[in-house]
Amino acid sequence: MTSDRIDQSDDVVLRHDRDGVRTLTLNRPARANAWTMQLEEQYFAALLDAAADPDVRAILVTGAGRAFCPGMDTEALAAVSTGGSFSQQGRIRQTMPLAIPKPLVAAVNGACAGIGLVQALMCDIRFCSRTAKFSTAFARRGLPAENAVAWLLARLAGQGVAADLLLSARVITADEALELGIVNRVVESDDLLAVTQAYAADLAANCSPAAMGQIKAQLYQSLDSDLETARREAKRVFEQARNAPDFREGVASFVEKRPPRFEGLGVHLAPEQFRD
Fold this sequence. Notes:
By secondary structure, the protein is α/β, with parallel strands linked by helices. The chain contains ten helices and ten strands. The model has no long low-confidence stretch (mean pLDDT 92).
């Protein structure tokens, strides 16, 4: 398992491996990590690379400096609003992170809005600093809800909360985000990265990568299925899992009171399957 390896060859997305966790840092601090096509391409490529690496068991996503991502870079927005081109053709879909078969844990360290909020919601677990602030932003830029954010928010926090946050595009604090169910935990700013890393490292050390990948698929598939369909699918995958090595190892490690030795998971996903 890789440990404490830092790769800074990527200019706008940094990678850091430690204890089975790959940390991806959005790295445009001079622009508060505002979203650009370069950042998008590197971030999605980094996610696909992490999915394929069996040494990576969990993925932590954060931002450099004092912000997570406040949305699309204002220079790009200004260019588009005055007639510049911004083609969606051929881009990887913003929902691609949901298909990564490994847990994505966000450490939202500051401003998180627009497409930055969309990508935070594409993570499975969200921790945030006490100073973080959130906004959908779209309505205040003259835009509809983009990239399935209406679907995500309605299922995460309920239709009423989604309507409020999308129609008003108001800014909410970390504490309100926790109350509404947008984030899982609020952490003091100085402790955020360490706390999130410890959580992700616990997943990496103690949870079966194959089981986590299956659970993640179940979570998102069941959002649009009825109870009986979800039950039958759970029964099907359970029958497969109980004959797999990870089940035997999980039971043996529990009985023997030792850390489990689960096999890593490497899944190669072609970027083309996620392009519009």
